[in-house]
Design brief:
Helix content: 55-70%
Number of helices: 12
CATH topology of the domain at 103-205: Cytochrome p450-Terp, domain 2
Structural class: mainly alpha
Largest sheet: 3 strands, antiparallel
Order of helices and strands: EEEHHHHHHHHHHHH
Oligomer: single chain
CATH class of the domain at 103-205: Mainly Alpha
CATH superfamily of the domain at 103-205: Cytochrome P450-Terp, domain 2
Distance between the termini: 57 Å
Length: 245
Amino acid sequence: MPDSSRTEIARAYPDRVEVRGHDLTGDLMGRLTFTEHFHLLLTGREPTDDERFFLDLLLVAIAEHGLMPSNVAARITLAAEPDSLQGAVAAGILGAGSTVLGASEACAQLLQRGRTLRDPVAVAQAIHAARQRMPGFGHPLHTPIDPRAERILELADERGISGANVAFARSLRTAVNEVWERPLVMNVAMPIAAVWLDLGYTAATVKAVPILARTASLLAHLAEELERPIGFSLARAAEEAVEEE
């Protein structure tokens, strides 16, 4: 049983900092990219070429998507308190859930269950019968395809890392359209989860990717908010869009 009184991630001493057993200044700084350093922090080891490539790819794919709820929440928060950059970032990240930013985690869990059943139609039928939303499918804007999803799958095939999870995700696309009796676009969350699992990572860690990626985007929105504020306009638009009973 692990010793709950210690951490294996990092420790600071008067003359050095150790990160995952490495000397931060003597070994890591100037050698690792931030993506590689994040991988080391998350997993305890440096990434392979494919792991670094796809971690970069997924971070880029999910970082920015316009004035999504996370960005709107952050900008409105900063408008209300311009001195709380950290609070505004937190406001944006707190909304990471099953609909926005957190959907890849639900997709990874679905893929793990689905591969056990080995029947994509049965998986889709069970979710449809329960009147639940199908993780990784449907998008209010992108149709008939989500270009981000297709690019991830294309590069997974090109670099030869597509495995059982990518294959099952593709089979779900056919099954979902059959069960729902209408086309539902596979959105970016499903390929992120499928590629992440095929690279050997756990479902429990996949949510770290969109959270890290969107944090970078939030900082960009907040820098813009300080220069060209729209937070109060967004709040006013929300108020005008809702009628009182």
